[in-house]
Amino acid sequence: MIRAHKVLALIEAIQPTHALVLCYFLETNSKQCNLVDKNVIEIGAGTGLVSIVASLLGAFVTATDLPELLGNLQHNVLQNTKQKCKHQPCVKELSWGIDLEKNFPRSSCHFDYIMAADVVYHHPFLDELLLTFDHLCKNDTVILWAMKFRLENENRFVDRFQTLFDLEIISNFPSLNIILYKAMRKGRMNARSSKLKI
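RE: above sequence
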């Protein structure tokens, strides 16, 4: 059982459903989406649930969030992965769009997967979020993203996202208004799909 220490009621109220959708997908599709020894980064990790599950499934995980959330995130990740997973995950600060090259240099940072659960909602950092996806994503990186549609902002972000990335719906949860997407850089989805069925 995964234990989460939540300080902010907002996180408790909003994030878990999206994170659970993504975790459910990872666990039930572990053959098609084999995370063993893969490099995974979760952006906007919040309580760390997705990072914890990816770690338990054998990935090298970097869980990221804002500096003020790292204490909670570190506690949850450590509590639920210490001596329970193949690779101990790390927790790192990531403020979208800020010091990306300094903290995650393109020349040395390669992620097989970028995971995100409910990072698109009504906030003023959607440009920075898109910049962060763009910076972290290589030609063979797969983005797995759980998103709830609430307002027109979300639709506009998806349109902008699709200028850089090919997007595919891999699961839909209409009762929750949540869609799980797979994305890759433009033109790379078909090249990779012959090797990987997600």
